[in-house]
Amino acid sequence: MITVDEALSHLFSLVSTLPEELIPLTEAAGRVLAHEVQATRNQPPFAASAMDGYGVRADEVALDAKFKVIGESAAGLGFDGDVRAGEAVRIFTGAPVPDGVDFVLLQEDCDRFGSTITITSDPGDNANIRPAGADFVIGQPIAAPRRLTPADVALLAAMNIAQVPVRRRPDVALISTGNELVMPGDTPGPDQIIASNTFGLKALLDQAGAHARILPIARDNEASLAMAFELAEGADLVITIGGASVGDHDLVGPVAAELGMEQAFYKVAMRPGKPLMAGRMGKAAMIGLPGNPVSAMVCGHLFVLPVVHAMLGLPAGRRATRQARLTTDVAANGPREHYMRARVADGQLTLFDRQDSSLLTILSEANALLLRPVGDGPRATGDQVDYIPL
Amino acid sequence: MITVDEALSHLFSLVSTLPEELIPLTEAAGRVLAHEVQATRNQPPFAASAMDGYGVRADEVALDAKFKVIGESAAGLGFDGDVRAGEAVRIFTGAPVPDGVDFVLLQEDCDRFGSTITITSDPGDNANIRPAGADFVIGQPIAAPRRLTPADVALLAAMNIAQVPVRRRPDVALISTGNELVMPGDTPGPDQIIASNTFGLKALLDQAGAHARILPIARDNEASLAMAFELAEGADLVITIGGASVGDHDLVGPVAAELGMEQAFYKVAMRPGKPLMAGRMGKAAMIGLPGNPVSAMVCGHLFVLPVVHAMLGLPAGRRATRQARLTTDVAANGPREHYMRARVADGQLTLFDRQDSSLLTILSEANALLLRPVGDGPRATGDQVDYIPL
User: Fold this and answer.
1) Which GO terms describe its biological process (chains A, B) (predicted)?
2) A4-17+169-311 is classed in which CATH architecture?
């Protein structure tokens, strides 16, 4: 058995950053920027008014001063001329500030009569002008890698980057194994259950930026498993679920080995999820997850998500943890890292009483995995502990 | 001017929960469950082995005890018969526990020779059996409304709910207004800039579960705006950006009114984003956002996201806040709620020096909006403050 950290570093060595592709800006949110992009223009491209009002010369601004309005600068169509002493230009938010103007009076601070305005309230010191390039200038970078947020998408638009270089989504093939499984919507026999792991994992991995596809269930025989691996062709990552334990029907390891899988490890010192295997299988990385539903999903969070992140070019590492305070005492932990299902609210972490790795109802109610390090001593109510948000 | 809370309660009165639709399980993650669903089966459907090993009678379990292996119970195909004194059945994880068996010996605790096993290690007290229905029983509910997580999707699969009743996605039409705008990829004139707000908002709203569509830019004339409103036909929510201020070219209010918009409010006591308007326009709700990029996105977070949540049947209310500690002093706030761009790391909130509402570079670096309530006094370094995560 190896540690969780050793398993992760094996896993990272099995994959590499995927190539980039250009996608339309409307599809960029949530994707990972592949290389630095640079603004193709200045923003604003000209000194722009920050308010609706009148552009004048700052040295003429005083209460009761009068100006003659000689034209208008609107957003999209500026005033083409000089503004001289005693003159003003009607100007709107975002419009170019004309030559000669270095102050924008708020319209609320002026009275207008015909083509004459008078300053009727103290206009203050703020010139209400946004200098050219105040937001960004040509060549200003957005650094990669970076998972693009809605605000990033707005910024890319403003920079006129209509096509965005992002990492291709990892193609992940999900194979559940076992004679006991039928697909949702099917009618199970008396000894059968419904395949659930592939559905939960697909949701998890798709949210993380992968493209996961659910393959037909592989039965507990070599031909069926071999067929499933064949259908996985083209995947960057092949994930099997179940059949990786020590039972006589656990054929994933042997069949994968026959198909050329070079095993990197088998068994990790953790709970739930000890029987985890991984290796390289042709062009794909392969991870064998345990078949217990909670083990499969926990290993999805702990191992598969970081692997997906690595393929997307994001920093390779453990899932980030947060801190909360225990609402109960917990006993000392043993020689395996333990990830206990819990609910965090208002900084307080409450463990579920039932921690069996078959209980999807509990996992569905949980929003956190309490991390118990190897050999961690007993912890008391109120202790600050680390957890992974789900 | 009305308060942020008043604006929100007006907004909630403009929309109603959308109808439900049935979708395939593979598309359910992130969608909002429309009504309670119930398990159609027990899980496990039978008492199931939690380990690979041998099923025996608990009262015979003792070190050195011997059993005759009379058959096998595999996952998907149980053992059809009784297990009597002195007998054992080879059993695998997830397989049905045969009649007569109430203890599963771990295979690591036994030696097998031919069809005889001997207990060679202390098997402990754990029977390694999961009772029927331990995870869920027929009729057990998943309560609605609920935004479905990957674990929920796995649970729905296990319950054999292959089609999931969810709220229809709100159809949101996004109209940016202004002669100064061109679409990303176009070549702007010297007085023009690139439309960015619709792209940022689409990303934000799509992530929240809406289906946002970007309409053609409306120019600063009545015909163009009227055409844009016409293209919004069928939307649940029409959002305009810009043109809602007091400038001569701000036509959104007048044109919408001509088209029958019943205005619920105009102007909210907040920064950034004061010139916010909303109303009812035929079958759709209409929100007019300010045109400054940061104002538009902040109002998207503060107002549009809660409205989308309400349409999805989720509880209607303000965005949830978290707490962090200030890394600098901040001055007292005035009569408008102020949402200041900030970066939170390790529980520390650092404000950006530049808070101008035109700065998308700052918004893109920000991951939090510091919430300054109306009339909030000065705050000192180290004070605990509320923020909205971005």
Assistant:
1) Mo-molybdopterin cofactor biosynthetic process
2) 3-Layer(aba) Sandwich (3.40)
More reliable by pLDDT, A76 or B244: A76
Alpha helices in A137-251 (DSSP H): 150-158, 197-207, 222-231
- Check for a shared fold between A21-43+137-167 and A48-130: no
Mutate to test the interface with A, among B36, B79, B93, B384 (most CBs of A within 10 A): B93
Mean pLDDT of chain B: 94
The CATH homologous superfamily of the domain defined by A322-389: MoeA, C-terminal, domain IV (2.40.340.10)
The B residues from 353 to 382 touching A (CB cutoff 8 Å) are 356, 358-361, 363-364, 366
CA gap B350, B344 in Å, rounded? 6
Confidence of residue A33 (pLDDT cuts 50, 70, 90): very high
Q: Which of A52, A157, A184 has the CB atom closest to B157's CB atom? A: A184
In angstroms, the separation between the Cα of residue A223 and the nearest Cα of chain B is 18
Cβ of B194 within 8 Å of Cβ of A151? The answer is: no
Read off the pLDDT band of B274 (50, 70, 90): confident
Q: Which of A75, A160, A184 sits opposite B162 (nearest CB)?
A: A184
Residue B292 forms contact with A (CB below 8 Å): yes
What pairs with residue B181 in β-bridges? B193
The CATH fold assigned to A21-43+137-167 is Molybdopterin biosynthesis moea protein, domain 2 (3.90.105)
Tell the residue number behind the tokens 């893109």, with chain if given: B364
Fold annotation for B48-130: Molybdopterin biosynthesis moeA protein; domain 3 (2.170.190)
Q: Which long-range contacts (CB under 8 A, 24 or more apart) does B116-121 make?
A: B116/B66, B116/B67, B116/B68, B116/B69, B117/B54, B117/B66, B117/B67, B117/B69, B117/B88, B118/B64, B118/B65, B118/B66, B119/B61, B119/B62, B119/B63, B119/B64, B119/B65, B119/B66, B120/B63, B120/B64, B121/B63
The answer, for B101 touching chain A at a CB cutoff of 8 Å, is no
At which residue do the structure tokens 């649940």 appear?
B236
pLDDT of B93 strictly over 70? yes
**Element of type H or E holding B11:** helix B4-14
Cα Rg, chain A, nearest whole Å: 31
Q: Could you say which residues from 223 to 282 on chain B have a Cβ atom under 8 Å away from some Cβ of chain A?
A: 245-250
pLDDT score, position B373: 96
Please give the CATH number for the structural domain made up of B22-43+138-167: 3.90.105.10
User: CA-CA distances (angstroms) from residue A156 to A112, A148, A269, B354?
Assistant: 40, 10, 44, 20
Domain borders along chain A are 4-17+169-311, 21-43+137-167, 48-130, 322-389
What pLDDT, on the 0 to 100 scale, is given for residue B244? Answer: 66
